[in-house]
């Protein structure tokens, strides 16, 4: 019988869901989908001083926005502290861990001696084999694992290959603090075991942790999960990703107007590939994703690539679906709450009608919102610098002529207004652009917009005529 694959995403709720964490969640989710398995969510909230409910909410909200779901209810690590203590005490009883009474001063002295001798600062094992009767009174001990002292601990990693760690460098690390709280190292191993996790997919900054956790698994006589440590994300300059590169919370990308589908597509390509395929649906990612196609080199975050990819998704998304996403995202976009507050059925219909033209020029929902703003702009329109330039010279007189021509039209639609503009241009020996550009400036306050005849149709006869009149000579 084939073992069901169980992955997990295990963030610490000390801040937002950052872009590296989002990619880790995505890789775990895709591998579970690819294998017909499950992905679990564990909130590692053992750092009580830094863990916050707001961060937990932000992580869960970020995952939901990205379209990443999980099986069952989230597991909260702190709530399982009793189980972790029980395992630590069981290791002591089995002779595989021990109470250590070394004082903070002794530990400082050990580190300083090691540095002076050119050795890595490691605990020297002074309480490893001492009898309990030697314990000083009034001192609460920590519990340390009895790590192997010779040989090496090997992590057979699905991404990094075989990685060997000399046991002399791993020392007898603490698994239970003197106040009875478990360390990260112990909690992770116990939780992964109890949750049935078969595959651990996480950043390669945890690779050394993988060796220490392997020692714990072996001490407990438990099966070691398959490990896959993925390279971290770097900035375009090759330096470790920072806020200046885009190491922002997932919520920031929503506020910048990126689509969840585009974010999934972009994130999956940071360190994983399927041939030269750049654009892929979630179903294709799930079908193709496997651990052996994850690269060993750090990937580079590139905003320009993300923007171009997002622009593709904007154009490719069905208009009704895109409109629904746009309205849903309004509360997060710059200027979005203000638009939401003044939204009427008529304005909603205008935005939906303008959407096909708007999405052709936008790369993000924020750009789409900005380029649609002419629809609800207050009169008289404020002209940007280029638009004002288009209304210099004879342009305002031209607008007066067009106003008269438009007012006489029996029907108002894109075809009728185009016919009137073309007739005017031909009669005056002008190229179409020489007529359309001043008209665009008068109607939108800008030099770029969707097709001018679509703009006229969406604004309607009455609004178009008053805007033209505002700018005409």
TrEMBL record:
GO terms for molecular function: ATP binding; glutamate-tRNA ligase activity; tRNA binding; zinc ion binding. GO terms for biological process: glutamyl-tRNA aminoacylation. Residues 339-470 form the Aminoacyl-tRNA synthetase class I anticodon-binding domain. Its EC number is 6.1.1.17. Belongs to the class-I aminoacyl-tRNA synthetase family. Glutamate--tRNA ligase type 1 subfamily. Gene3D superfamilies: 1.10.10.350, HUPs. Transmembrane segments: none annotated. It catalyses: tRNA(Glu) + L-glutamate + ATP = L-glutamyl-tRNA(Glu) + AMP + diphosphate. This is Glutamate--tRNA ligase. ATP binds at residue 243. InterPro entries: aa-tRNA-synth_I_cd-bd (IPR045462), aa-tRNA-synth_I_codon-bd_sub2 (IPR020751), aa-tRNA-synth_I_CS (IPR001412), aa_tRNA-synth_I_cd-bd_sf (IPR008925), Glu-tRNA-ligase_bac/mito (IPR004527), Glu/Gln-tRNA-synth (IPR000924), Glu/Gln-tRNA-synth_Ib_cat-dom (IPR020058), GluQ/Sye (IPR049940). A motif ('HIGH' region) lies at residues 11-21. Keywords: Aminoacyl-tRNA synthetase, ATP-binding, Cytoplasm, Ligase, Nucleotide-binding, Protein biosynthesis. Monomer. Residues 5-307 form the Glutamyl/glutaminyl-tRNA synthetase class Ib catalytic domain. Its main location: cytoplasm. The keyword Ribosomal protein does not apply. It is found in: Cytoplasm. A motif ('KMSKS' region) lies at residues 240-244. It is an enzyme of class 6 (ligase). It comes from Pseudoxanthobacter soli DSM 19599. Catalyzes the attachment of glutamate to tRNA(Glu) in a two-step reaction: glutamate is first activated by ATP to form Glu-AMP and then transferred to the acceptor end of tRNA(Glu). SUPFAM superfamilies: An anticodon-binding domain of class I aminoacyl-tRNA synthetases (SSF48163), Nucleotidylyl transferase (SSF52374). One of its GO terms (cellular component) is cytosol.
């Amino acid at each position: 019988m084939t073992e069901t694959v169980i992955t997990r995403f295990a963030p610490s709720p000390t801040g937002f869901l950052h872009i590296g964490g989002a990619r880790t969640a995505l890789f775990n989710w895709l591998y579970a989908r690819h294998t017909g398995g499950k992905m679990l969510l564990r909130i590692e909230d053992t750092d009580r001083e830094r863990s916050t409910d707001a961060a937990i909410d932000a992580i869960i909200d970020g995952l939901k926005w990205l379209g990443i779901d999980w099986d069952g209810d989230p597991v909260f690590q702190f709530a399982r502290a009793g189980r972790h203590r029980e395992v630590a005490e069981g290791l002591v009883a089995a002779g595989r861990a021990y109470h250590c009474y070394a004082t903070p001063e002794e530990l400082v002295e050990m580190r300083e001696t090691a540095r002076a001798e050119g050795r890595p600062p490691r605990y020297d094992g002074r309480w490893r084999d001492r009898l309990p009767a030697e314990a000083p009174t009034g001192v609460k001990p920590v519990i340390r694992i009895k790590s192997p002292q010779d040989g090496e601990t090997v992590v057979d990693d699905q991404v990094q290959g075989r990685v060997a760690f000399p046991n002399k460098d791993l020392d007898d690390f603490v698994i239970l603090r003197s106040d009875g709280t478990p360390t990260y190292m112990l909690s992770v191993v116990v939780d992964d075991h109890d949750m049935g996790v078969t595959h651990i997919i996480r950043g390669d900054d945890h690779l050394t942790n993988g060796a220490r956790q392997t020692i714990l698994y072996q001490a407990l006589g438990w099966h070691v999960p398959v490990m896959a440590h993925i390279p971290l994300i770097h900035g375009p300059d090759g330096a470790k990703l920072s806020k200046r590169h885009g190491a922002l919370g997932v919520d920031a990308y929503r506020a910048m107007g990126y689509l969840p589908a585009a974010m999934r597509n972009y994130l999956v390509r940071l360190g994983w590939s399927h041939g030269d395929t750049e654009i892929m649906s979630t179903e294709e990612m799930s079908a193709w994703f496997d651990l052996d196609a994850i690269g060993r080199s750090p990937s580079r975050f590139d905003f320009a690539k993300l923007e171009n990819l997002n622009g593709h998704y904007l154009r490719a998304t069905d208009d009704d679906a895109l409109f629904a996403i746009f309205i849903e995202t309004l509360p997060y976009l710059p200027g979005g709450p203000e638009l939401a507050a003044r939204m009427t059925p008529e304005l909603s219909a205008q935005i939906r009608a303008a959407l096909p033209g708007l999405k052709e020029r936008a790369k993000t929902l924020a750009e789409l919102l900005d380029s649609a703003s002419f629809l609800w702009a207050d009169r008289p329109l404020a002209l940007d610098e280029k638009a004002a330039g288009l209304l210099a010279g004879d342009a305002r007189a031209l607008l007066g002529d067009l106003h008269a021509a438009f007012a006489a039209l029996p029907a108002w639609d894109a075809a009728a207004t185009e016919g009137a503009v073309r007739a005017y241009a031909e009669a005056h020996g002008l190229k179409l652009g020489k007529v359309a550009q001043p008209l665009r400036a008068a109607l939108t306050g800008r030099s770029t917009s969707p097709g001018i005849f679509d703009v006229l149709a969406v604004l309607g006869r009455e609004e178009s005529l008053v805007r033209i009149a505002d700018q005409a000579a």
